[in-house]
Amino acid sequence: MEKKTGHLPVVGIGPLLCLPVVVLTAAGVTASAFGIIPCAVENGAAKAVMLVIGILLIVIGIALFFGADAGGKLKDQIEQNKLKTNGSYRFVRNPCYSLFLLASTGAVLIAHNPLLLVIPLLYWLEMTVVLKRTEEKWLTELYGQQYTDYCKRVNRCIPWFERK
Questions:
Q1: What is the pLDDT along the chain (164 residues), one digit of tens a residue?
Q2: For an engineered disulfide with 32, which of 113, 138, 149, 163 has Cβ 3.0 to 4.6 Å away?
Q3: What angle do the packed helices 95-110 and 44-67 form, to 10 degrees?
Q4: How far apart are CA 97 and CA 123, in angstroms?
Q5: Are 114 and 32 in contact (CB under 8 A)?
Q6: Do 127 and 101 touch, CB atoms closer than 8 A?
Q7: Angle 50-52-57 (CA atoms, 0-180°, nearest 5)?
Q8: DSSP letter string over 22-61?
């Protein structure tokens, strides 16, 4: 029997969304390193640029993840049914999922194989479809216009400055 909590799940569907991207990214990067997936960039300058951008994306993802709890206890706000819009939530509605999107993209760039960029693209598509049908639906039912207005100002999974 499922325990009724009266609030959204604290963890949610995150593990189900994130595990495939971790596995696919690790497999793709490994396959690229062993030459199983060809088309790695050989140009030294391009490799350096990809390395720097890849590292920056991973760092930004980690910062968003840890910034999600900035300004208040995320778990407490979920349990109290309060919409969290501060910390990383000012820049992206799903900072935890964004970590995996940015880290996957960063890892692919560090592997210097543009063919692997299909992995973060597929993850973004998966997140968009699944989140619209689950978490966003639940949040709209719970918060109504407040959440709808928040969605108009803040992107789902690609961090950006809040629109006024």
A1: 344 456 666 667 778 889 999 999 999 999 999 999 988 788 999 999 999 999 999 999 999 999 988 766 777 777 888 888 888 999 999 998 999 999 999 999 999 999 999 999 999 999 999 989 988 998 999 999 999 999 999 999 999 887 87
A2: 113
A3: 160
A4: 10
A5: no
A6: yes
A7: 90
A8: HHHHHHHHHHHHTTSS------HHHHHHHHHHHHHHHHHH
